[in-house]
Amino acid sequence: MSSPFRIFGSNALRTVLLHCLPSFERECGVKAAVDFGSTNHTLEIMRGGATADLIIATASAIDTLTAEGKIQPGSRTDLATAGVGACVLAGAPRPDISTVEALKRALLDAKSVSYSRAGQSGLHMANVIAQLGVADAINAKTIINASGLVGEVVLRGDAELGFQQASEILAVKGVDLIGLLPDALQLNSLFAAGIGATTKQHDAASKLISLLRSADAARSMVENGLTPVTP
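Given the sequence above, the corresponding structure tokens read:
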């Protein structure tokens, strides 16, 4: 039996990747094994010696891993951009976050807040809260999500208001995306794919990248809060 096709996948593109995998496995005759996590998680494990056939992370991380010899030079393919949004439990009141002042008020009014520890959105939210001048008040009621989907923290009732990339919020059934951060505070992250430097399944990796750049994948991206990069 051939080795599984191993993928390190960003949580931001989780839903889109899962949408494409059945066609990929059928057309290439392989079984995919996916390790989902934040970009920083991927950087950490690859620097620790882990390898994959295909890596999906922020474009800057793909460039970094390429420079470190862990991704094949010239294989970076940009896929989509993702903005940071907020969520509440489905059916709960939806605070306004459409302006800087509205976001500040929503943060102060929330009984509890959650964002990720290591992901791009979490690092950004920590900076936003500091920039708004409310760090002391918000940090005292913040539940930091070590890894995974912040929507799941909100779904469990551990936090009232959660922040993460919109596509990651939409991956959790039972929470509502209430909107995106205002433009003045937004972080739009570019995500890309790269082929692992040691892969023996280069053709399969290229095929999956093609599927992720297809019109079908683009529709899934839009439905899941992402902006596809035009081929």
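The longest strand covers residues 189-195. Try to locate this feature in the token string yourself.
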